[in-house]
Structures are given as structure tokens and as C-alpha cells.
Backbone:
């Protein structure tokens, strides 16, 4: 099978959907199929057009990156030439409103995609829908939301995809309502490859002597912090759980923070409860991050509860067999269908879980649905 993935950007580590696309393509190539990824609005590409191979998990993924500084008409022509030469069975559009338009309103996107021709089967993966999370919005955001919902419906209407997917129960329900079409739930997977456990290295990275490791109950968060979630009242169950176990609560954060999130972290540390130890490690290479995650006792997420299934950090923690404690539940929506996540810290600490997802399983499920769709069409 031949698949061409279309996304916004493909700069490694700079675009989450680009990273997702590259990882999925690499696994599908590993399984014996052909893939090519096109970044059709690359904001990190200095050259007008860059064709190369990107190495992912020892697999070479052919990619073409088209700078957003080039006129759309030229990008469409270049993409059409690549697609025509590859003759894929499937075109897979990785949909995020802001990937194709800086204001999040890519009204012309479906018409641009239609210029690739009508001989291909379309798949659309909706990574993001709209600004509307069911909460009151200012007038400007309400207007943007209305446009984004129109664009979603129109993209489906114009491209007539044979398969539509998204990653959360909440998004499945919203897309079914918007489109009237059946939606496949395709789980997220971790971008981090599990490294062989090395407790000595992990303890050194966390600045604790290895012979004192069992004195701590370690909770780890990585990635950005959502506003207002890191407060003393929300963190108190962590301190109580450590006290019951006669341990010191140790809150470790890994990764980069926005200015607002850094202000939140610093404010929390200035007023943190007595007895709580904290450490901010900043950015870590993937092998070191894997070590630290494996050595912690549980993960901490500030992602809204109903959006748990679309968090790459949550997917990474779960794949490394760490239960995830959620600090907040501000957005209305269905409960996430994930094993190993809870709003109750004691549940996280008492139960172990098996990883039911992962890149290989997601790729297998994706290919199975693509093949199944083609089989039904030919019957």
C-alpha cells in the first residue's frame, strides 16, 4: 500500500502533528508499505522546497517540506507532481486548523486539497477541532469557532473521505454530530522510545543519592502546565499520600515551559507546602527522559480530564507503565477511555496497568481500517 501524508510542518521536535505523522509513517514503512510525508505549510523551513529523508527509529521516511513563504499555487503544483509520481492509494490529511492558517481559519483548505485530483482515497485525521470546549467564550473566539466548525463540515463534504479518524472519545462524538459520518478512534502513541532502565542514571539526573531513592514518593510532570492547575489545594493529596507511606513527596517537572507556565511554576514554588520537594529539570534528551519517567512512581497531568486522550505526554507516561494522576477537570465532556488514568491519586498508586496502545498497535489498526475500507469498496 502507498500512502501520502499531508501535514503543516515537519521540523523535528517543533510541531507535534509533524512528529506524529513522521512516527506513524516510519512504522508503516517498517511493516513493508510505502509512505511519503508532505509538509505543505512549513513554518520552520528556510528553503522554498526541501526534499529529504528523516530517520525515525532506524527507518528512513521520505519527506518534502514546502515553505509557507511560497505562494500556495506553487506549493499545490509541487505537491501534485509528487503525488502523481507516487500514485498512492491513500492521501491522509492531518487536520489542525492552525497548521494551515495562522488565524486557525483555513477556509480554502478543502478546495486546495481537491486540486490533487479525484482518483485517490482520502483519509482525514482530526487532531484539533475548534476553540469550543463547551465553556463560555468571548465574541471573537465564538466567531472563530463557528468558522472552524464550518470548515470541518466543508472539508468532509468536499473531499468525501473514505475514512475519518480522531483520538478522543469527546472528538468522536463532536465529529459524528458535525459530519453525520462514522468516526474511527485512533489512539495517540508516545514519541519516546523506551530505554533500558538505569536507576543509577535516573537518580543522578534527579539529584538524589540512589541509596535514598525509597525515601521519596516521586510524581513527574512533563511538558507545559495548563493555567491555574498547579495550586497548593490541588497538590495536597500528593502530600497526604506520601505521609501515609512515610516518604517525602518529590514533584519533578521535565520539559520546556511557556512564560505563563514558568510564572505559575515559580509562584507555586515560592508558596509550596512545607515538606514538598520540587525539581525542574528542563529539556532532557529522549533517553534521559525515558530513564526519569521509569524511575518515578506516577505521572502528573495538568491537561483537562476530558482531553486526556489527546495528550502526548499522557500517552508517553502510560506506555512507560506509569499511571497518571489528573489535577483538574475544568472542561465538560465524556470520561476518557484510557486505562491507568484517574482524578484520584490513591487509585493511581494502588493499581498497575498494561499498555494497550503504542505505535505498532496504532499503525496496525490504521492499516487494518484502510484495507477494510478498500475491501468493502470492491465487494
Residues:
Amino acid at each position: 500500500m502507498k500512502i501520502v501524508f499531508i501535514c503543516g510542518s515537519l521540523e523535528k521536535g517543533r510541531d507535534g502533528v509533524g512528529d506524529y505523522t513522521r512516527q506513524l509513517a516510519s512504522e508503516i514503512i517498517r511493516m513493508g508499505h510505502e509512505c511519503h510525508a508532505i509538509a505543505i505549510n512549513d513554518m520552520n523551513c528556510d528553503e522554498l522546497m526541501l526534499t529529504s529523508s528523516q530517520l525515525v527509529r532506524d527507518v528512513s521516511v521520505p519527506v518534502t517540506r514546502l515553505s509557507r513563504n511560497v505562494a500556495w499555487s506553487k506549493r499545490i503544483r509541487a505537491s501534485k507532481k509528487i503525488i502523481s509520481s507516487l500514485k498512492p492509494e491513500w492521501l491522509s490529511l492531518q487536520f489542525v486548523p492552525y497548521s494551515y492558517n495562522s488565524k486557525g481559519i483555513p477556509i480554502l483548505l478543502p478546495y486546495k486539497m481537491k486540486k490533487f485530483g479525484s482518483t485517490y482515497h482520502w483519509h482525514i485525521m482530526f487532531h484539533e477541532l475548534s476553540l469550543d470546549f463547551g465553556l463560555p467564550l468571548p465574541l471573537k473566539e465564538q466567531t472563530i469557532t463557528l468558522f472552524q466548525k464550518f470548515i470541518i463540515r466543508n472539508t468532509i463534504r468536499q473531499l468525501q473521505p473514505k475514512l475519518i479518524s480522531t483520538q478522543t472519545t469527546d472528538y468522536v462524538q463532536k465529529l459524528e454530530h458535525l459530519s453525520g459520518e462514522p468516526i474511527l478512534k485512533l489512539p495517540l502513541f508516545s514519541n519516546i522510545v523506551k530505554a533500558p532502565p538505569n536507576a543509577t542514571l535516573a537518580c543522578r539526573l534527579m539529584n538524589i543519592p540512589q541509596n535514598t531513592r525509597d525515601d521519596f514518593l516521586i510524581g513527574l510532570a512533563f511538558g507545559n502546565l495548563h493555567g491555574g492547575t498547579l495550586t497548593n489545594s490541588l497538590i495536597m493529596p500528593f502530600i497526604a499520600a506520601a505521609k501515609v507511606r512515610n516518604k517525602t513527596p518529590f514533584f519533578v517537572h521535565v520539559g520546556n515551559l511557556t512564560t505563563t507556565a514558568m510564572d505559575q511554576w515559580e509562584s507555586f514554588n515560592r508558596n509550596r507546602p512545607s515538606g514538598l520537594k520540587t525539581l525542574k529539570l528542563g529539556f532532557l534528551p529522549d533517553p534521559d527522559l525515558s530513564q526519569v519517567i521509569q524511575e518515578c512512581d506516577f505521572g502528573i497531568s495538568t491537561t483537562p480530564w476530558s482531553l486526556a486522550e489527546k495528550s502526548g505526554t499522557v500517552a508517553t507516561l502510560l506506555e512507560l507503565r506509569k499511571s497518571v494522576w489528573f489535577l483538574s477537570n475544568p472542561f465538560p465532556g465524556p470520561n476518557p477511555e484510557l486505562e491507568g488514568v484517574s482524578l484520584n491519586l490513591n487509585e493511581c498508586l494502588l493499581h498497575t496497568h498494561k499498555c494497550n496502545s503504542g505505535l505498532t498497535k496504532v499503525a496496525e489498526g490504521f492499516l487494518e481500517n484502510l484495507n477494510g475500507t478498500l475491501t468493502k469498496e470492491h465487494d
About this structure: The first helix runs from residue 16 to 30. The radius of gyration is 22 Å.
